[in-house]
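Working notes for the structural subgroup meeting. M.R. asked for a predicted model of this chain before we commit to crystallization trials. I am recording the input and output together here so anyone reviewing the notebook later can reproduce the run.

Input as submitted:
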Amino acid sequence: MEYIIENEYNFRVYNAMKENIFHYKYEPEYKLAIQTWQNYIPDENIIAIYQYMAQYAFQHQQLIVASINNLQGVDGSFDGVRDWLSTEYLPRAVKYGFKFTATVRPKDFYAQLALEEAQDIPQHLGYTAQNFNDFEAAYEWIKQKLQAYLASQS
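Returned structure, recorded in token form:
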């Protein structure tokens, strides 16, 4: 994999075939990370991307209160990542202030099944999650949640 940093708020990841498989965009005014996943990504690469994203956010002093996971372009299952997300990554994120996630449903059948299998993660970790069919609806929902939350913190 190749990580290309565009600026302090954006980076992309390319696979060995030079296909863009991930794009990270941070919106500081909302403390929002937008993650766009594409193509087939092996489980170990998904984990590596999440680890890189956490390191990148830390290095750039980005507090992530919410995320949008745009999975529309994902191919294939990502079941092998579910346990790691629920026991390793997300508990740490919640500990450091993560509150909301909006997920844009994948179009691929196997990716849809993997997303359905992951539906129980938010309940036991204590953050709010919602699934959407399109990015615009996900963005509007997360923006409303963040505006209310951030106003309550002032």
